[in-house]
Design goal:
about 160 residues, mainly alpha, 6 helices, elongated
């Protein structure tokens, strides 16, 4: 019969695997958001060029801004899992693991709870964090390039 320590250690290992999977899932989600942003903005821009309806450029700009926020929020959420994962890695690869086995206790690990990190953020702080993520490379350059292209084509279409 496993001891309480062994059960907790196994749960921590499973949590580590879960965070690894979550990080990869958010990578995939961010990739899909970027693909959809490029696809939608390209389609709207082509419609605007072919139909000579400049208002369609505004639709493309709003879509690009919406995808930019969604992408930044995805990255923000992913970073929460990365911080949690790194805390577990420090435990598993540092002297704290040996100490935990000697003491048969997991009191030496400091892993932030997801509920503490995700559930108690005021809206103003969340908005600041999203804006910070939106300015990170390469997210920033992709969306600035999309917006610049649409504005340049809009100006060229007016001429």
């Amino acid at each position: 019969m496993p001891t309480a320590f062994e059960v907790r250690l196994e749960n921590l290992r499973k949590e580590y695997e879960y965070t690894e999977t979550a990080i990869r899932t958010y990578d995939d989600h961010a990739f899909k958001v970027k693909n959809w942003a490029i696809t939608v903005c390209s389609a709207v821009t082509l419609i605007a060029i072919n139909s000579h309806r400049p208002v369609m450029y505004l639709v493309g700009v709003v879509a690009a801004l919406g995808f930019w926020v969604m992408d930044a929020y995805t990255r923000l959420t992913q970073r929460i899992f990365i911080r949690r994962n790194r805390a577990m890695e420090r435990f598993f690869h540092g002297p704290a693991l040996d100490e935990a086995f000697e003491a048969q206790s997991l009191n030496g690990i400091d892993v932030p709870l997801l509920s503490d990190v995700m559930g108690k953020v005021p809206r103003s702080a969340l908005a600041r964090q999203i804006l910070f993520e939106a300015r990170m490379f390469p997210t920033y350059y992709l969306y600035v390039a999309l917006l610049t292209l649409m504005i340049a084509l809009f100006v060229a279409d007016l001429a």
